[in-house]
């Protein structure tokens, strides 16, 4: 995960590492794509944060060539959005909406019904857990085909009962899959560390030795702390699908616990239906 900075891109030229390039405005997309080709980068996607609503964004020629993670505050004008729908359908697009704004629960439903992938950002509260649970059921058990809503469909695809999984992957927040760089080439475990100026590595030249760093290993196994401290997450029924990643959004209540428990049940039921097995019932 790196900012769009030509000298930094040049350092990564031809290295073969998958990259996600962050942009501050949609007007930079064309320039960024040209730079990717010039430096022969393995581009995973472009990540664009904008204050513009989705309905105010006019797709341009060439945008269809690369996956776009587009962060918008809300959908904006629905009539205007419908006029742009044919252009949006031509894109490899996922629209990210902040879950802290209740209007975006409805927005995610609208995009799914229109055939556009979306994702709810679950990094800031307050969250309306009941509405999130309803949205998960809508995403996984619709009677008609619709586009995916992350993190629900991502979890339904990636979850295995014998493995660890959580919502961080959908939001580029899993340090085992994504690291963050600044323009100076310093490496950070996540966006919070980058904003605080706390690098894991002083230069990207040390990436090959990343797995041996104590700080990286500590972050990778941070989930174990919940069992050492015996907090609420350690005895949560939905642990296998969260690993404590939503606990900081809980405030004084326990809203995330019933939500995660219901979400795990929904994901397991979804997978059972996909394989045609149905629920397995033990009998003597």
Key traits:
284 residues; alpha/beta; seven-stranded parallel β-sheet; two-stranded antiparallel sheet; 10 helices; 9 strands; 13% strand
Describe this structure in words.
- The protein is of the alpha/beta class and 284 residues long.
- The protein has a domain at 2-167.
- Helix content is 35%, strand content 13%.
- The protein contains ten helices and nine strands.
- A seven-stranded parallel β-sheet has the order 1-2-3-4-5-6-7. Strands 8-9 form a two-stranded antiparallel ribbon.
- Strand 1, helix 1 (6-11) and strand 2 (18-23) form a beta-alpha-beta unit.
- It is globular and about 50 Å long.
- The mean pLDDT is 89.
């Amino acid at each position: 995960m790196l900012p769009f900075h030509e000298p930094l891109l040049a350092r990564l030229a031809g290295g073969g590492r998958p990259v996600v390039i962050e942009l501050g405005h949609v007007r930079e997309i064309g320039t960024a794509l040209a730079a990717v080709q010039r430096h022969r980068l393995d581009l995973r996607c472009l990540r664009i944060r904008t204050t513009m609503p989705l309905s105010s964004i006019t797709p341009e020629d060439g945008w269809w060539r690369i996956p776009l993670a587009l962060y918008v505050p809300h959908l904006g004008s629905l009539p205007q959005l419908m006029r742009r729908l044919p252009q949006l359908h031509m894109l490899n697009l996922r629209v990210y909406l902040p879950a802290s704004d209740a209007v975006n629960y409805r927005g995610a439903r609208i995009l799914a019904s229109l055939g556009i992938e979306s994702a709810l950002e679950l990094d800031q509260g307050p969250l309306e857990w009941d509405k999130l649970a309803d949205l998960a059921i809508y995403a996984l058990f619709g009677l008609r085909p619709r586009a995916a809503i992350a993190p629900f469909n991502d979890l339904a695809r990636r979850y295995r009962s014998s493995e660890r999984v959580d919502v961080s992957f959908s939001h580029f927040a899993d340090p085992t899959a994504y690291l963050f760089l600044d323009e100076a080439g310093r490496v950070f475990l996540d966006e919070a560390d980058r904003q605080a100026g706390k690098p894991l590595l002083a230069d990207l030249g040390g990436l090959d030795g990343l797995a041996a760093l104590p700080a990286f290993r500590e972050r990778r196994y941070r989930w174990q702390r919940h069992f050492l401290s015996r907090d609420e997450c350690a005895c949560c029924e939905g642990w296998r699908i969260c690993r404590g990643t939503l606990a900081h959004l809980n405030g004084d209540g326990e809203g995330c616990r019933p939500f995660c428990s219901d979400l795990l049940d929904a994901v397991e039921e979804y997978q059972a239906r996909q394989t045609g097995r149905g629920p397995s019932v033990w009998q003597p």
